[in-house]
Fold this sequence. Notes:
- It is found in: Cytoplasm.
- By secondary structure, this protein is an alpha/beta fold.
- It has helices at 12-20, 33-41, 53-56, 68-79, 100-112, 128-136, 152-155, 165-181, 193-202, 223-226, 244-260; strands at residues 25-29, 46-49, 86-90, 118-120, 141-146, 185-189, 207-210, 218-221.
Amino acid sequence: MSVHSEIKKVTTETLRKMKFDKEKITMLTAYDFTTAKMVDAGGVDAILIGDSAANVMAGFETTLPITLDQMIYHAQSVVRGVDRALVIADLPFGTYQSNPEKALESAVRMMKEGGAHGVKIEGGKEISKSIKKIINAGIPVMGHLGLTPQSIYKFGTYKVRAKEEAEAEKLIADAQLLEELGCFSIVLEKIPADLAKRVSESITIPTIGIGAGPDCDGQVLVYHDMVGMNQGFSPKFLRRYLDLYTEITGAVAQYVKDVKAVEFPNEKESY
Length: 271
């Protein structure tokens, strides 16, 4: 067992130290109390209340429709279930891009009402003023570069980003800028593994990869994908640790069968 798994509360400083000590950081998503409790008990270092809740919890095709109020509700639910992990919440689309004042207002609400320990926002230089404003108010910010799902209509595709040298150079510059602005960590999504390695080595804050190879300082997956609840989503980077879709549908089918056959509830299960 690592020294970090015995720490009562993981903080942004814990993650920085883990990078320095070359200990990999683990992060998973959670959107509700029960899941957060299990994920935290499993020993992850950080929990992300991702705007992916729009997809896996609400059934939307993109992350764009979810509102700040809805994200705050998810954050409140998650925080109640966590004892140890650092809890970071996404600021959803439209709550920070337009101006720094709005960005700060959104981040303050997420911290005060949602109870999150920090916020994650997508983008580099374009949103630097918003990042600076939030950090200056004492709120921890996790950056997010590479494939930024909130910009899906700009990119038009969920394919790997930064394969071309110009985009790769911009990504490295953005990562260095995010560090300068005071971000405590950066998520790198769907970029070539060698580029993720270059980025991780060029900054002193931890990188957390999803589809960005093994050389990031940590990894993140969407919980529903990792435990196999989500059957229609099979990107190359995903490893399924369980097949809960099959397990759960099987259990439901058995329950239906038992009730129809008057085998449930039995004598022992009745008062």
